[in-house]
Structure formats: structure tokens, C-alpha cells
Amino acid sequence: MTEQTIAQNNRPAVCRQKAEQRLTAEVEQLLLASDDGRSRWTGSKADLYEAIYVAWDTHLIRDEATGSPMLLKQMMVRVCRLMSVAVPANPYSMARRAARRKGVKAASYMERYTHMLEHGNDSPLRRCVRRADHSESKH
After folding, report:
1. Tens digit of each residue's pLDDT (9 = 90 or more) over 45-86
2. Secondary structure of residue 131 in the 3-state scheme
């Protein structure tokens, strides 16, 4: 096997790892955002749940008070409330179900996120966050 073949075979794993790191950073930005009631999630709930699950699964996002990896439920509650999305009763089950989507129309969010990064979109998650102006948020 040539070095070029080895590099090509490792490319999907490397791209996915970089995409997971980038997605985790974007989810962390959401967790740190102010809760002013103006942010709305415009993508599917399943995509948001999967994004949070992928970020949680890296164990890189820490609870400020304890320094321990943040619990999935904590992350789900914070981000879902911030984005005006219903908090799932069972975050683990909902997120795993979302990540297992298959097929052309139901590719996992992580697959689509990786694809968007590879094609020049440096913040794919942010594309699904809409900020209302002050007049919209009062209605």
C-alpha cells in the first residue's frame, strides 16, 4: 500500500474527527450564549438533538462548577430552551435515534455537517440558528 492510498483510506476518519471537534465548539458556543429569548432553531429537532449528542460524546464540554464533563441532559435542557425547542423526555434515546438515521433523505446530521465543512461552510450549525430582532421577540 502506498502512502497516498493510506492517506486516502484515513481521510474519512480524519474529516469526521475534525467535524466532531468543530461541531463541539459550535454547541459550546450555544451553551455559552445569553438566554435573551431571541434565538430560534430553524432545522429539524432531530438534527439539534444529534448535534448535542455528538458534542456530549466527545466529553470536551465541561460543567463549570465541577470540571466534570457536562451531562447530556444538562446540555439538552440548556440548548433546547435557548433555541425554543421542546426538551426530549429521554435525551439519550432521542439523540441516538436521530444519529441512526439512514438513507439519502435521512442521512445523519453528522454526515451532512462533515459534508458542509468539506465544502467551505465553516459554521454549519449556525446556519440553523435565527436571531429575532427585538420587535419579533415581543410577540
Report:
1. 989 999 999 999 999 999 989 999 999 999 999 999 999 999
2. strand
Per the confidence metrics, is the pTM higher than 0.85?
no
- Other Cβ atoms less than 10 A from the Cβ of 2: the count is 7
Question: Cα(55)–Cα(26) distance, rounded to whole angstroms?
Answer: 9
pLDDT tens profile 27-42: 999 999 888 888 999 9
d(CA 38, CA 25): 21
8-state DSSP, 83: T
Cα→Cα distances 43→48, 50, 51, 60, 62, Å: 7, 12, 11, 24, 26
Cα-based distances in Å from 5 to 1, 10, 99: 6, 9, 29
Residue 132 neighbours by CB under 8 Å, 6+ apart: 38, 39, 40
